[in-house]
UniProtKB/TrEMBL annotation:
Pfam families: HIG_1_N. Coiled coil: none annotated. The keyword Nuclease does not apply. This is HIG1 hypoxia inducible domain family member 2A. The keyword Transmembrane helix applies. InterPro entries: Hypoxia_induced_domain, RCF1. The lineage of its organism: Eukaryota, Metazoa, Chordata, Craniata, Vertebrata. GO terms for biological process: mitochondrial respirasome assembly; response to quercetin.
Amino acid sequence: MAQSSPPPFDPSSPPLIEGFIPTPVHREGFRDKFLRKSRENPLVPIGCLSTAGALIYGLICFQKGNTHQSQVMMRARVLAQGFTIAALMVGVVATAMKAQK
């Protein structure tokens, strides 16, 4: 007996799984996703902006020859990066806790 080959995979239609109802695919643009994520965890963009601000101001001070202020701003940048990482971790934990409920 000749065995028939399975039908070719059609990527335009999802496979049918018993008991599963597929939801329509929602394409979210970059702007919409950025705004949604910023609303979910507003401390991360604040931390990113403060990190970038400290870095830019520190580089400007370094270029002008104000090495003391440049060092202070580089330390502030490290603190802002730490704040951003902490905000990310709090967001991850909050999302995990929300998913368990």
